[in-house]
Amino acid sequence: MKNVILTLLFLAISVFAFSQKNADVLGEWYNAKEDIVITIFEVNEKISAKITWMKLPNDEEGNPKTDFLNPDENLRDRFRMGILMMYDLTYIAGNIWDNGSLYITETGKTYSGMMRLKNKNTLNIRGYIGFSFFERYLSTWTRVLDRDKFKNETVGKENLLSQLRQDLMDVISLMENVSLKPAEEILQKIEKENLLIKLQLDLSKVIKKIEKLKKAE
C-alpha cells in the first residue's frame, strides 16, 4: 500500500512539474520575420502550436493563402490561417521540449520538432530528421508583448485596401463614362470638366496607396 501511495505521489508531482514548465511557453509568439503569430497551447500535457494571425493572409488575387505546398494533395486547399505548425512536443528537461512534429508551410516539409526556451520571451525552434543534430530547420520566435501591434497593422492595411479599391472603382467609372462617347464629345467633355486633371489626381492617389502597401510588407 505504501508503494502504491508513493507511486501515485510521484506521478502527481511529475504531472504538476510538466504543467508548470508548459505554462512557461503558452501564449502568442511572433515568427522570426514577425509576419506571423503562432499560438502555443497545451493538449494532454503536450505542446502544440497553430497559426492565428498573418500580416499578409491573402494572395495577390485577394484570396486566403492556402497550404499549396503540402505533399498531401487533399490538404493543399486548406487555409494557412489556423494550420497546426507544431504538435506533441513533450517537456524533457532544462527548458527543452522534444519528440514532437514541426510542419513548415513555406516548404511543405514536416520534421521532428524540438524547442528550447532561451529566456521567458525567446524560443529557439529546431526541425530535424532522425537525430537532433541532423538539423534541417532553425528559427527564433519572440513572445508577443504588445498584442495591439499586429491588430492595428491588420486593421490599418484593411482600411487602406478598402480605400484603394474605391479609388480604383472611381478611375474605372470615369474611364467608362468617357470611352462610351464619340471622339469629339470626349474632347469637349475633357476640356469642359477638366477630366484629365481629375484622372491624374485619382491615379496619383492610387499610386501613393500602392506604395504605402508595399512599404507595409
Beta-strand level of the residues, as a percent range?
25-35%
Task: Provide the domain count.
Answer: 2
N- and C-termini, Cα separation:
65 Å
Q: Label the CATH architecture of the largest domain.
A: Beta Barrel
Element-by-element helix/strand order: HEEEEEEEEHHH
Most strands sheet? 8 strands, antiparallel, barrel
The helix-and-strand class reads alpha+beta
**Count of helix runs:** 4
The number of strands is 8
What average pLDDT do the residues reach? 77
Record the strand order, biggest sheet.
1-2-3-4-5-6-7-8
Rg measurement, Å: 26 Å
| Multimeric state | single chain
Tell me about this structure:
- This protein is an alpha+beta fold and 217 residues long.
- The protein has two domains: 144 residues, Lipocalin (Beta Barrel); 69 residues.
- The chain is 41% helix and 31% strand.
- The N terminus is likely disordered.
Architecture blueprint of SSEs:
Elements: H1 2-23, E1 27-30, E2 36-43, E3 46-54, E4 84-93, E5 96-104, E6 109-119, E7 122-128, E8 135-143, H2 147-179, H3 183-193, H4 195-216
Helix pairs in contact: 2-4
